[in-house]
Amino acid sequence: MTLFHIFIVAVVQGLTEFLPISSSGHLILLPQLTGMADQGLVIDVAVHVGTLFAVMLYFWSDVRLAIIGLPHALFGRLDTPGARLAMLLLVATVPVIILGLLLKLSGLQDGLRSLTVIGWTTLIFGFLLYWADRKGESDKKMAAWSYGDAIKLGLWQAVALIPGTSRSGIVITGARFLGFERHDAARISMLMSIPTIAASGLLLAADAALQADTAILRDGAIAAVFAFVAALLALTFMMRLLNVLSFTPYVVYRLLLGIVLLGIAYN
What we know:
Largest sheet: none
Number of strands: 0
Radius of gyration: 18 Å
Helix content: over 70%
Shape: globular
Number of domains: 1
Strand content: under 5%
Structural class: mainly alpha
């Protein structure tokens, strides 16, 4: 791969992974709309690793708390805030892992990677995000995040296995429907992304290991760095923007993109 191709793939992944506009949809669209060759599994894994480190760095205080509490959580001792946070994240991750394995083993996952599907999901879940964000005032904080909420948000997150849905967007949508205020809805979504990205990265890595050679590993390392920087910038931008604006700018982008994609798909 050329450096330019690596840069484009990594930046697209980094910028869209945490914005509610679907990173998987953009990565699928990139080769279809630009004529570039598919980046392959090794680069997919690399950009996932880059974005994973970005979100862990940005939310390090929460991540550190959950890491310290994880041993307690695994042994059922939920007597500390860290153990409780770790267990909430584990519970919220179960649905997407189960459904992801079912889709992979059944082969249905590949059938969803089409312009038509991405176009419709971009539109439909864009409208849903707008509705959830505008349905009324909400002031529920992350401290009130319950295990029931974690299960519900885990089910919302599993829907994001349909390309174009947006993992961050659908979890934010679910959190807004549950009454969480915007900033904490986004924070929960980003924290839920950590075990999810790690799990999907490990799944991809098992296949990618068979394709790896020195040149591809070098390209992957470069892609990871680019994706890390882009993701960190996107996270910082969105979390600060939420202090003054709603999710409407992202909804508008989704609607415009969806219309363009459906126009291309049906013509």
